[in-house]
Design a protein that fits this description.
The N and C termini lie far apart (58 Å). Strands 3, 6, 7, 8, 10 and 11 form a six-stranded mixed β-sheet that branches. Strands 4-12-5-9 form a four-stranded mixed β-sheet, with no helix packed on it. Strands 1-2 form a two-stranded antiparallel sheet. The protein is built from two helices and twelve strands; from the N terminus they run αββαββββββββββ. By secondary structure, the protein is α+β, with helices and mostly antiparallel strands. Helix content is 15%, strand content 36%.
Length: 185
């Protein structure tokens, strides 16, 4: 009994922490283990979010996107410049406050980026960007794909959506207007 009276933290049940004004924090062994478990769980969630594969989407799936991020992306298409695939990314929309980095990047069948690095990207106060990518013929564009990306946790540029049929988009102008995103992005 004398030992319990000498230890002001002896009455702290497992998995609990409390403040003792004379001795500081009284932390039980179970509390420390629980804290480590929560930290590991958070790290696993963050890695999953940052490393998960982009959703494969078709041209007919716009504007509502899969994946639970709440993205709403309007797609418009019109004739473009002969010999070029033109891609525009827009984030400026009425009542919207989408400021984090967004991009539309085009890749060839070997997975190499085609056109300017990072494609049509926007961020902060730059709300519109257009790129013109030499496209060749529809046969030469077989296997080309487009990836829509956005900044997620800690600003990491993350692939969100992949579109795998670009051969029909030769000489077209495609515009993506990111209208809704996760809160604060």
């Amino acid at each position: 009994m004398a030992d319990a009276a000498a230890d002001p933290c002896s009455d702290v049940p497992p998995g609990v922490a409390r403040w003792d004004s004379d001795n500081g924090w009284c932390v039980s062994e179970g509390f420390a283990i629980m804290g480590v478990a929560v930290a590991i769980g958070g790290l696993v969630w963050l890695l999953f979010e940052l490393l998960k594969t982009a959703w494969a989407v078709g041209w007919n799936m716009f504007p509502s996107m899969p994946g639970g991020d709440g993205d709403l992306i309007q797609l418009t298409e019109e004739p473009g410049l002969a010999g070029y695939l033109t891609v525009t990314m827009i984030t400026e929309c009425p009542g919207g406050n989408i400021r984090w980095w967004k991009a539309a990047e085009v890749y060839n069948s070997s997975g190499q980026e085609v056109g300017p690095r990072y494609g049509a990207w926007v961020k902060d106060d730059e709300h519109v960007r257009t790129v013109h990518i030499p496209n060749g013929t529809p046969d030469e564009m077989k296997g080309w794909f487009l990836v829509l990306k956005k900044a997620k946790a800690f600003g990491v540029h993350t692939s969100m959506y992949s579109i795998f049929d670009l051969s029909s988009k030769a000489d077209r102008h495609i515009t993506f207007t990111w209208q809704k995103d996760a809160p604060g992005q």
